[in-house]
Fold this protein.
Amino acid sequence: MKILCVLYPDPVTGYPPAYAREDIPVISTYPDGQTLPSPRAPLGFKPGQLLGCVSGELGLRAYLESHGHQLIVTSDRDGPYSVFETNLADADVVISQPFYPAYLSADRIAKARCLKLALTAGIGSDHVDLKAAAARGITVAEQTFSNSISVAEHVVMMVLSLVRNYLPSHEYAVEGDWNIADCVSRSYDIEGMHFGTIGAGRIGLAILRRLKPFDVRLHYNQRHRLSAEVERELNLTFHATPESLVQACDIVNLQVPLYPSTEGMFDDNLLGLMKRGSYLVNCARGRLCDQDAVVRALNSGRLAGYAGDVWYPQPAPVDHPWRTMMHNGMTPHMSGSSLSAQARYAAGTLEILQCFLEGRSIRPEYVIVEHGQLAGTGARSYNLT
Ligand code: NAD
């Protein structure tokens, strides 16, 4: 079989990088008891290596070539003469990461006549037109939970850095200044603030748990209400709508998947309902927010800060307004691709490939689309409309 894999480019300083640490901690299980990826040995990499870039190859080459499969790995994914487009027609499997997505639009799916499996290395398969994939009988799968905690940690970091005014204050230090008044005139404690997450799945719930010890008051809006036990444990306030949540909160986090009816959820109307001086964090998907409405909300003071790592398109163009808008704490899309996360999603990718190539079924928690419809985690978390 032909496996076509799009990964982000290597570090500008070359591959492999000089690693900061010798290894990564060993995690025994995910928080809800889901087992870690369990591919058959040998693993084609050492956990802690940079695997998500082209030279890292997700550690897949040895397994695939020893079983007679062809692996093409590229970051050249745009335009009709790109390595990606020119290899798409006879690829059986496409692997792509949300951080540097190979957008599998309906047009590209139509061209990909042999495609049977669209595999996301990571979480979030919105770069695949799920409706078109379902109509063609293509399976879409990802490594559920592989980087959920990685993102939860990033969100907590962004909440604290926005509210405490960390990034501008760091800049003053770097520049040799000592402007205490300038540092603190936009700096607050999160203690006592109201924090709410729209979407309380694996990431959203992990964020709520991590923020609980900061003595913030916790709110959530979620398609499937959490158990009474969890609500009690975290002292959660449930909101039936995003509108109700944003009016009650000082800090709002967005953690729902992107699908047609969540696209543009944060528009002028919803932003207009937020308290003056709210903070919005979005490490879910860029298109959940109306790009220009966010800029307007920062300019008007409705938002005191916006942070996240997701943009549209990706990579974001150099003149994307979110790079330079006021009071932003943006990073490139990197929260779910820490070296720790890469070890898990690379192992999960190998597990899914082994299942697919050896005719075994893929775990339901990894499945987004199967047999022409949303299935597994996809049925719980996505809509086709
Ligand atoms: P998850 O499937 O565990 O949780 C998503 C939750 O959203 C589900 O529980 C679902 O019930 C809920 N939901 C769906 N539509 C909703 C709606 N309209 N309103 C309220 N709730 C709704 O997934 P997760 O692991 O928590 O990830 C969530 C999203 O975060 C992913 O879909 C992806 O887009 C994004 N993500 C980003 C990164 C990154 O690197 N920035 C990494 C992983 C995931």
